[in-house]
Amino acid sequence: MDGPSPNAGAVGAEWYEVRRNWEAHRGEIIQEALVGIYVNGRELATIMCTPQEQVALALGFLKNEGRIEGLREVVVAHLSQDGCCVDVWLTHSIAPPKRVILTTGCGGGVTFDDPRDALAPLTHRLRLEPGRLVDLLGRLHFPGSLHGRTRGVHAAGLSDGETLLARVEDVGRHNTIDKLVGRCLLDDISTQGRILLATGRVSSEMLRKAALMGCPIVASRNSPTSMSIAMAAAWNITLVGYVRRESMRVYTHPERLGFVGEPTSVSIEARRDA
Asked: Across residues 66-80, what is the average pLDDT?
């Protein structure tokens, strides 16, 4: 199977910066492209994304949409030379989607299932100090990353509470979750009982993917939506937003982060210990 393309994802650009004077600059900007996912010779979906780790994106998308459970079902996953098509051949056929749901946010997200469909609540007993989320989210962007080179990109990561087990980037925040799942498949990393870290807004389809991954804690630097909060409350997921060095908002099941009392689904400010 094709591995990641570490040099892809950014293209050269020129611009003028206006401060006290006009200055000409040259550098990199985030790349956005259409990538088609073909399964058993038939097109399943076309996704706007950053053309990096396209095979991981395709495999993660298939797993998150319930088309595969693991790599044992994948005969081959091949990225075309121009990077715009991923051909996946499976050991079995798949039914075409009954409907397509366009999801919120950048990158042209798509899902085949209603994000509100019921799932069983998670039972993992993961516990974490709130300050660890600040440290872990800070590791998503690093020198030499796409964000470090271009800025205009989202990131997602998987952690066990101590280290980052996997990390990916994409122009679409929901694409990062699919890429993360695909990378974990390729590297044989279990997502069960882990922490899902994200830089973008947490919407309903992202929360559903987190539940399918078995992640009892979801933390982001940005905000959740009303539907994602309701889903997290129902599925026993600790949903954290606006993670900053001095504060964060814990919307559901705060007991995993040390809150003592009756858990609620109301926003609770959690201050980081000095």
From this structure: 95
Name the helix (H) or strand (E) containing 13.
strand 10-18
Cα–Cα distance, 126 to 174 (Å, whole number) = 24
Cα of first residue to Cα of last residue in the chain, in angstroms, is 47
Supply the residues annotated as catalytic.
106
Region of 145 please: left (phi>0), alpha (psi -120 to 50) or beta: beta
Residues in the chain: 274
Percent of the chain with pLDDT over 70: 83
Give the residue carrying structure tokens 């094709």.
Answer: 2
Is residue 4's pLDDT more than 90? no
Q: How confident is the model at residue 260 (pLDDT cuts 50, 70, 90)?
A: confident
Average the pLDDT over each of 19-28, 53-62, 256-265 and give the range with the smallest value.
256-265
Q: DSSP strand E in 162-221: where?
A: 164-170, 195-198, 217-220
The answer to whether the beta carbons of residues 204 and 232 sit under 8 Å apart is no
For CA atoms 166, 172, 178, 179, the dihedral sign is: negative
- The 8-class DSSP code of residue 230 comes to H
pTM of the model: 0.81
Residue 128 sits at the vertex; the CA angle it makes with 189 and 213, to the nearest 5 degrees, is 35
Return the closest-CA partner of residue 213 out of 195, 239, 229, 238: 195
23 pLDDT above the threshold of 90: no
pLDDT higher than 90, residue 184 = yes
Distance (Å, rounded) from C-alpha 154 to C-alpha 201?
Answer: 10
Q: Which residues pair with 157 in a beta bridge?
A: 167, 197
